[in-house]
Every structure is written in C-alpha cells, then in structure tokens.
Design goal:
Cyclin A, domain 1; 12 helices; disordered C terminus; 0% strand; disordered N terminus; mainly alpha
C-alpha cells in the first residue's frame, strides 16, 4: 500500500509548530516519537478537513482510521501526507461526500498521482474490511439497541424489525466500514419511518451520541439498499416497497 505514492504539504503547514514538544515529558525517544506522530496527525488532519470544509464527523472518522495504520506505515518510511490523503478520500467516499477534485488540488496531484491514489483507496478499503468485521463482534446488536429501548418509546414491531435490519446489514457487509453503533441507529430510524413512528432522527442521534448529520448520511446509505433489506425482513409485504 502507498507503494510509490508520496506527497508533501510542507509549504502549507509550519512543521515547527506541529513538533513543538518538551523533551522532559518523555521517558525515552520512542515515546517522544510516538507523541510527535500523534500530534502531527491531529494537526495535519484538522488542517486538511478545515481547508476542504469537511464536517466534524469526517475528522473524527479520519483520526480513528489513521490510528489503525499509521504506526506501521510511518515506520516503513511512508509520509504522513501520503497516508492521510488516502484515508480522507476513503472517509468521504463511504459517506457519499464528493471532494475528490478538491483533494487533488490541495495536494497538487498530477494525472499519474491521481491514478495511483484511486488504486490506493481501493486497497485501503480491502485493508479495513477485516478490521470492521472483527470489531463488530465486540457488542451485539441487542446490546447496542438496548440503549434506545430504555430511552425511547417504541412498539414491539419497531424493535423486532430494527434488530433484523441491523443484522442483515452486518451479515452482508452492506455498509462496509460504517461503525456498528451507526448501523443500529440508522436501522432504527429506517424502521421508525417505515412504521410512521414519532421518534425523530435527532432523538436517536442523541441516544447514541452521534452527530445528526452523520446519522442522516448513514441512513441515506442504508436506505439506498432498502429493497435488499425489506426482502430480508420476516413478515414484510414485498409489494409495499
């Protein structure tokens, strides 16, 4: 991954500010290096997301994904910018945010770089697939859904269909790369709309501490697969799709 793909934003960012650390706070050089890498990641990610006018949840998503791959890639000699540009575009793509050309412009990519970049995004998607499949097992759908059951009033049909919907999405990797909590929350909103419940998107977002804009995007992605979801739900009238 990132085979020949190297970028630099050194002209845009003052690296002396990024790596302004006090040696007395660290036990050894490795600890200092790890701290510097994390600080640089945070500041550079914030800079990119601000320049591209990306929503806050994309920033959170990029930081989360970056932590999964950064250490090995930096140790292997890949630049932080090379890793970040792929993760930023990957995060935008999974939430249907079109920022490809803005990223090309920000990083001053030529045609060859652009071609390599698109290949790397596909590679990154494969890399994250197994991680999300494993992390999804940490909590069950029932455990996550119980938070909404305790705080929101809903009938048994909404409860049943939400759990089935979320499990279909997870089992078939329909929203590959989206967190399990967001999948459960979006599944709940999907079924409250289908069954004309008074529960709002804002209420669900509050229960799960998810930005409403993020939940809305996840719901739209889920809704685009509604035919597959509704055919998988037990007792659904297929003619009402």
């Amino acid at each position: 991954m990132f085979s020949q793909f190297q970028l630099s934003l050194s002209q845009s960012i003052d690296s002396s500010n990024i790596f302004n650390t006090n040696n007395s706070h660290f036990i050894d050089e490795q600890q200092k290096k790890n701290f510097e890498n994390k600080l640089a990641s945070f500041k550079l990610t914030k800079y990119i997301c601000t320049k591209l006018e990306l929503p806050e949840f994309i920033f959170d998503r990029v930081i989360s994904l970056l932590g999964k791959v950064q250490v090995d890639k930096l140790d292997a000699g890949f630049s932080l910018e090379s890793i970040l540009v792929v993760i930023v575009l990957f995060s935008c793509k999974e939430h249907s945010i079109q920022k490809k050309f803005e990223v090309f412009k920000l990083f001053k990519l030529n045609i060859l770089n652009q071609s390599e970049l698109l290949d790397e995004i596909n590679n990154f998607k494969k890399l994250t697939k197994n991680y999300f499949r494993k992390s999804a097992k940490v909590k069950t759908v029932n455990e996550i859904f119980s938070r909404a059951e305790k705080k929101l009033e809903m009938n048994s049909m909404i409860k049943k269909r939400t759990k089935i919907t979320a499990n279909i999405v997870l089992d078939r990797n329909i929203l590959d790369g989206v967190s399990k909590i967001e999948i459960v929350a979006a599944s709940l909103y999907f079924n409250t709309l289908r069954l004309k419940s008074t529960i709002t998107l804002a209420e669900i977002a509050k229960v799960y501490n998810i930005p409403p804009t993020s939940l809305e995007l996840t719901y739209k992605l889920l809704h685009s697969h509604r035919r597959e979801l509704l055919y998988g739900l037990v007792g659904i009238n297929k003619q009402t799709i």
